[in-house]
Design brief:
129 residues; alpha+beta; six-stranded antiparallel beta sheet; 6 strands; 29% helix
Length: 129
């Protein structure tokens, strides 16, 4: 095995949890993103835990933890009412796998990254394909 393969294998052993924050969208679009995440991966957000609107003028964000170690097949493109911002934080391999899983359903654009020693944070913009 080369050093890249060894590093990826080590990341998989450390776990595939990614913290996901969905924001900048309507609650229905947030619900659609969580539905796709549940279809593609294991997540701590139950299907009955639908995003709710919060009264007031503060921005709303919805949060989940996604385990990307077992990837499932997403059936295809999914419609969104508008663009959705997703912030994902986890190991490099795990965040990349999450991005690839979302790309099965949405047009995914990376709009920002912050790299660390063991983890990265990526801001994604999702739109309908």
């Amino acid at each position: 095995m080369n050093s890249t393969q060894e590093a990826q294998a080590e990341e998989r052993r450390q776990g595939g949890d990614v913290s996901v924050v969905v924001s900048g969208c309507a609650k229905d679009d947030a619900g659609t993103v969580f539905d796709v995440l549940r279809a593609a991966f294991a997540t701590d957000r139950a299907s009955v835990d639908v995003p709710q609107d919060i009264t007031g003028k503060r921005p709303t964000a919805w949060v989940a933890t996604v385990d990307v170690t077992e990837e499932r097949v997403v059936s295809g493109p999914v419609r969104l009412g508008g663009p959705v911002t997703v912030d994902a934080q986890g190991g490099y391999w795990a965040v990349d796998r999450l991005r690839q899983g979302l790309a099965d359903a949405f047009a995914v654009q990376v709009v920002g990254t912050v790299s660390g020693d063991q983890e990265e944070e990526v801001r994604l913009r999702l739109a309908a394909k």
